[in-house]
Request: fold
Amino acid sequence: MRTLITNGTVVNADLSAAADVLIDGEKIVAVGRGLAGSDLAAGAERTVDASGKYVIPGAIDVHTHMELPFGGTFAKDTFETGTRAAAFGGTTSIIDFAVQSKGATLHAGLDTWMAKAQGNACTDYGFHMIISDVNDATLAEMDQLVAEGITDFKLFTAYPGVFLSDDGSIFRAMQQTEKNGGLIMMHAENGLAIDIVAGQLAAAGKTDPYYHGVARYPIFEGEASNRVIRLAEAAHVPVYIVHLSSRDALEEVRAARDRGSMAFAETCPQYLFLSLDDMGNGFNGAKFVCSPPLRPKDHWESLWQGLVKDDLQVVSTDHCPFDFETQKQLGVGDFRKVPNGLPGVEDRVDLLHDGGVVGGRITRERWVEIVSAAPARMFGLSGVKGVVAPGADADIVIYDPARRHTISARTHHMDVDYSCYEGRPVVGGSDIVMSRGRVIVEDGDWKGEKGWGKFMKRRTAREYLV
Ligand code: URP
Ligand code: ZN
Ligand code: ZN
Reply:
């Protein structure tokens, strides 16, 4: 099947240009002016007129948690529902987190997550690996995983008793990635200090979800970010701070980058558009409980500056949805028991277009970079995803920069009973979404298929970062 996209503006991270795009099977084969009517495009079965639209690379969300067991329940979206919702929002690849259970092997965790995704995902998917135990056996397994295309490992300075690793364990994992070329991703909050404050607040009767936000001080994120960056410097490896939420943590990343450190970071839409104020209003605040928590509004501008100046390279979602009416209720009477996580995989591209490009904070090229090109580059997919260019996968979104819609749980496709952005109007939306040459969303209709998504075996960080 050959498809020709004509009359659009191709927007890549480095350049926008009026150009046609020719797709043959799963790949882009040509990008240029005047392809319509050329010998190259002769016999194309389908022509799509993209006049007035952007032709952008399908977005990549490198931080999702489909079906994550957490806080006594499971994140609600499956690989089927979550990737389908992602596609409606212009995201054509996700990288999710497989989890090592304590005492089990990394491969056992990977097999479990592969089984959840295979035959179910509607878009392409890859995995990072969450390491719960660092020991000689799991360190050796890290090398095997890198060879199998799972090239990043997430460790935590948060969640004592669940995922927290001590500094020695984190350093050992970093030393191992120095040998195998992988990347360490860090959830950087001082979980032990947070638990002290959270316990004190709860003992004082401050049990509403709002106090989840109060207990997790920004300085606890700044301290942990500095600590793990310094450990990475000692191990001579790149480190990627996930879901960075605060000015305090950003200052540590910026200082590290200024001194030449290989420190990288992502933020998420919730830290750019939502604030601690949303966590008020009694138990309704549980809808917004995630870690790190939402911050006071005065952190927003710093994060946008971080995106403009490339101290933050990526915006991902940390999509981890729990129904409000059932799952979030586990925390009634004690904010420490609210399952941590928010839905967002469907909204990221539009929120960033609306608040970023339309809002005059970033260019359309930078928008494409932070939602697609940089995720591809940082996570071993360069040349395959994240670019509209010959040889790349035909993951393409025909994006209407003038389309308007209002975000609502009544119309979204995520399998969760609320939206954090309920009632928010946004400018910009995906008209057509293609995954490897196949139209999977067209004018709001689903054309894709459960099981279409393929596992993405990724290259290592060392090939492109260092
Ligand atoms: O609240 C969050 N972020 N839930 C998902 C788990 C994590 O720490 O990323
Ligand atoms: Zn985390
Ligand atoms: Zn996460």
